[in-house]
Please model this.
Amino acid sequence: MSKKHISWLMTIAAAGMIIFGIWFSGTQAATFAKGYLLYKADAVSAEDFAPKLQTTNAEVSLPDAESAESLDDSEEPEETMQLPKDISYPSNPQIGDLMGELIIPKLGASLPIIHGTDEDELEKGVGHYAGSVMPGQSDNSVLSGHRDTVFRELGQVGKGDEFIVRTADGTFTYRVRQVRIVDEDDRTVIVPKPRATLTVSTCYPFDFVGYAPERYILVADLVSSS
Model:
């Protein structure tokens, strides 16, 4: 192969690397790669997020302590947030506050819920849409999370599975009754509901590289509270 051909191939390769770099930095591919490396464990635990919580109620610590009050044996997840029993969540949270925890028994996962759904909140855990009601209240409480971090295994959760939400107002158990895949601009996700409902949302498809065009929606009804 002549020097001219080698030089031509090197020029093409360099141009290709530059184009890939621009695409990679301009999409969510970088976020996906970061999320995969940070959350490659089989189950996602709230303990993974504890060091990253920088909220206005940062005085709440997450040390290794006595487990939170147990659920029924049939519902207890394999891995839950190790919180003191007397932990106090704010009853009127502000944007950025750690306002509760979301337990997903199907996944053995326990995740912090942060009030707000901007990127700052979603980097710390599951975001609570501030325009929706608090969990446990009548109407629609909406939670969102990134598919490549907190909700990377949410596709395993479906109809009949449960979500357990703990806040200052109590512990609320929801059962999934509907699974929807909608366009990213579908606003029916946040519409009012006639009963106490939990709507959990993340980007879809889960293995999509870049900005995902759809949303994976789980609609769950309140079945018990304490």
User: Anything to note?
Assistant: The longest helix spans residues 3-26. The chain is about 15% helix and 25% strand. The chain has two domains: 1-38, 43-225.
